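hey m, so remember when u said the tokens were messed up on ur end? i reran from scratch. heres the input so u can diff it against urs
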Amino acid sequence: MVNDLGVVAEAQVLQSFDPRAEQAALNDIRQWKFRPALVADLEAPCSLDVNIPFRLPISTDPLPVLPTPPEMPVEVKALLPKPIFTPDPDYPPELADQRIGGSVQMMLLVNSKGNVVDHQLLSAGQPGFGRAAAEAVTFWLFKPAHQGLLDIPALYEADLNFTPR
């Protein structure tokens, strides 16, 4: 895992052709530096898988030659947050009395703990629906987005529908 400063904070060997090469690879990888990942224009930690080809020395030296940083590491895709608790917004009384329905689209910023920490109204059929939706999403909970083994902050687009009864 690479922290928000671009420093390798954690590394592990997933597969190895020779256990003697593992420590050499880990020691070298911990010295690599990366440009920090960006999530919602903020520097954020990330996780990636890197294949490291080793060249065995011609001599009888017991350890392989140390790896060099790859030109282009293989990036692990980030998986979006998943809603786990999304209580419905309160229906604005003035719109319920008139039996007016509509929808609201919002962009939510979900932190690495699964909480909504910011929201932006993208569209609302009625201003009252926008206010009700903005209040409701502050109580929503998510399974956080993750990249590899790392929980990360991420954006989530939410659609809320208001149907008169």
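this time it looks ok to me. The mean pLDDT is 83. if urs says something different then somethings off w ur setup not the seq
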